[in-house]
Amino acid sequence: MAACLDGIRRAVARLPAGIGASVCVVADRCTDRTVDVVRQHGVTCLVNEEELSLGAVRDRGLRHAWARLGTAAGRTWLLSTDADSVVPEEWITHHLNWAGLGAQGVAGLISLGDSAELDEPTLRRYAELVSPRIRDHGHDHVYGANLGIRADAYLDVGGFPPISTGEDRALWARLRESGCLLFTPCSAAVRTSARTRGRAVGGVADLLAGLMQ
């Protein structure tokens, strides 16, 4: 969590003058020191103790961060990442550059962080799954760890659906079906943990665990 927030802080620091930012973490039924770490970083923390789906948790965080900004929907860019991920310094400005070209949604890539616990066959199988869906100027992946949506488009499609897995891909499908202008750039990938035990059912950790033999 600390590494995640440090990465976001560096990305926010690169914003041009006059552009505001609001960061919100949703601690979803955490039993560790997540809340303490977030508050030590001076970041808004919503503590959820309800049986909410992952989609509902993401939606709550985005709407709270936007409410604190108080900006118009058409001039607000909502960004999503995960606690086990570290965004690059250019992450926010990269998304805003696409927004400046008229994008209503941007789905970025992830890269695996420390993969010491993964053997070579597992890494090879992962690459065989991921690489064919990456092209020179785009890709077919959608990750909640690297996702940006213009707020008016987000509202128009109802936001993250209240489901417990695949909420990122479901939101992207809603945006595509509504005719939004979407981009899938390969640059500014977010580094995500290569752990094989995670809390999100159907997430990268589950995928990696399933590829181990």
Which architecture name does CATH use?
Alpha-Beta Complex
Uncertain runs: none
**CA(first)-CA(last) distance:** 29 Å
How many DSSP E strands? 11
Number of helices: 8
CATH class designation: Alpha Beta
The strand order across the widest sheet is 3-9-5-10
How much of the sequence lies in strands comes to 15-25%
Pattern of helices and strands: HEHEHEEHEEHEEEHHEEH
Q: State Rg.
A: 17 Å
Number of domains: 1
Helix/strand class:
alpha/beta
Fourth-level CATH superfamily: Spore Coat Polysaccharide Biosynthesis Protein SpsA, Chain A
Average pLDDT number: 95
Summarize the biggest pleated sheet. Answer: 4 strands, mixed
The CATH topology name reads: Spore Coat Polysaccharide Biosynthesis Protein SpsA, Chain A
Q: What characteristic shape results from the CA principal axes?
A: globular
